[in-house]
Design brief:
Keywords: Secreted, Signal. Controls the pigmentation pattern of the adult cuticle and larval mouth parts. It is found in: Secreted. The chain is mainly β and 433 residues long. The chain has two domains: 212 residues, TolB, C-terminal domain (Neuraminidase, 6 Propeller); 176 residues, Neuraminidase (6 Propeller), CATH 2.120.10.30. The protein contains six helices and 29 strands. It has a four-stranded antiparallel beta sheet with strand order 1-29-28-27. A four-stranded antiparallel beta sheet has the order 2-3-4-5, with no helix packed on it. 46% of the residues are buried. The N terminus is likely disordered.
Length: 433
């Protein structure tokens, strides 16, 4: 009997250890990014002209559609080869990036490429408008994008800032715009430049989420675009092809949460509303829109029906429809979040903790009810973006961005990683089950 009990305890112990050891799997890693150039001569010309400086290329955002994994490379500096790219999921450990939808769409015309050296610091000063050779661009052109979103209707939504060489000699080459592609044909569906009155002095559009009411009603879609610099939210109706700007006090940063210590770099940011996620559909079809400022540890929510009503959401009556969900606790700043409908779990990055957190929406929102599905002081230094794909895999991109912005990266090490894991496996043993 004693031996039998000992065997049971041993099995239980091994089960607990196995559960706690389930971590994100490293899918891809890069020391530096390389591209699928049309030819070696084109690559050499880009290097000679300064249009390609390998050290200027840092991956930031990602999303998945079938066998394509999309990766964004913002034009922080002047030598970015292509801002919107993809790799094939079956690619080797260090794949080269393929521009999407084409090289032409991601190539800046001659005369608008800055040769200035990038400078350390936060967001750029007011960018200069660029006139020369802009006519060479098309509606499919992607100047610089941070985050993207694949929707249920096989469309890729791109928030193109239109801004190049952000940290050096910033240039507003095209107006900020939503650019939407049909992933089945790789053709442009629409480009929607944001109206001038949506753009404020400190505006910085770096994220987009898409709210499709029903998969068989793809025209009835809304995009929510946070303005982390001027503390607003742009709501875009695909059916009406129009947008409106919403403001609220909850969009601002928390002055007590603006200090960061990541990968040996200390810095301060004042970024407001940034992370957004759609909650589970209610019986009436509505959803909660979860959101938080980057420089904050608090999570908020607002019904999507509020945002989708232009006259109501832009008036003062909507103020009390916004609710505080809770607080992630000390050092709980987060850059991105995504809600998994089936598990009812919200995943979010934990940039100051080199990790990824989770919260079950059935529970109160506080540090005791939240889990850390993975943390790694090497592989997860600045987890920048995450998504859950159609097969319920969680994908996470980490990129050591603070060192890229304020110091320098060691290119003999792996600096950029994409990791993945099964949602249900990752939340085992956490308060998120």
């Amino acid at each position: 009997m004693r031996r039998y009990l000992r065997t049971i305890l041993l099995v239980l112990l091994c089960t607990v250890i196995a559960i706690e050891c389930i971590k994100l799997e490293e899918k891809y890693c890069w020391q530096q990014l390389e591209y699928a150039w049309p030819s070696e001569s084109v690559k050499e010309q880009a290097i000679q002209s300064g249009k390609y400086k390998v050290e200027d290329n840092l991956p930031l955002g990602l999303d998945v559609w079938k066998d394509k994994l999309f990766i964004t490379v913002p034009r922080w500096k002047s030598g970015v080869a292509s801002s919107l790219n993809y790799v094939t999921i079956s690619d080797e450990k260090t794949p080269i990036l393929h521009p999407y939808p084409s090289w032409e769409a991601n190539t800046l015309p001659d005369g608008v490429q800055s040769q200035s050296e990038a400078t350390a610091g936060g967001r750029a000063a007011a960018p200069k408008a660029v006139q020369s050779n802009v006519g060479a661009l098309s509606n499919s052109s992607i100047i610089s994008t941070f985050r993207i979103r694949v929707d249920e209707c096989d469309r890729l939504w791109v928030m193109d800032t239109g801004l190049a060489d952000i940290l050096g000699n910033p240039m507003q080459i095209m107006p900020p715009a939503l650019v939407i592609f049909d992933l089945r044909t790789n053709e442009l569906i629409r480009r929607y430049p944001l109206p001038d009155d949506h753009v404020k002095e400190d505006t910085f559009f770096a994220n987009v989420i898409v709210d499709v009411g029903k998969k068989d009603d793809c025209d009835n879609a809304y995009a929510y675009v946070p303005d982390l610099g001027a503390y607003g939210l742009v709501v875009y109706s695909f059916k009406e092809n129009k947008s409106w700007r919403v403001k609220h006090n909850f969009f601002h940063f928390d002055p007590l949460s603006g200090d960061y210590n990541i990968g040996g770099v200390n810095f301060q940011w004042t970024d407001g509303i940034f992370g957004l996620a759609l909650g589970r559909a209610e019986t009436d079809g509505s959803r909660k829109v979860y959101f938080h400022a980057l420089s904050s540890t608090k999570e908020f929510e607002v019904p999507n029906r509020v945002l989708q009503n232009e006259s109501y959401s832009t008036g003062s009556d909507a103020y009390f429809d916004y609710k505080l969900v809770g607080d992630r606790g000390s050092n709980g700043q987060s850059s991105a979040e995504f809600f998994d409908d089936e598990a009812g779990v919200l995943f979010y990055t934990q940039v100051n903790k080199d990790g990824v957190g989770c919260w079950n929406a059935k529970k109160p929102y506080n540090p005791d009810t939240q889990g850390l599905v993975d943390s790694d002081s090497d592989a997860l230094v600045f987890p920048n973006d995450l998504k859950v794909d159609a097969n319920r895999n969680l994908w996470v991109l980490s990129d050591r961005m603070p060192a890229f912005l304020y110091k320098s990266l060691n290119y003999t090490e792996f600096n950029y990683r994409i990791l993945k894991g099964k949602v249900d496996d990752l939340i085992l043993g956490t308060p998120c089950v």
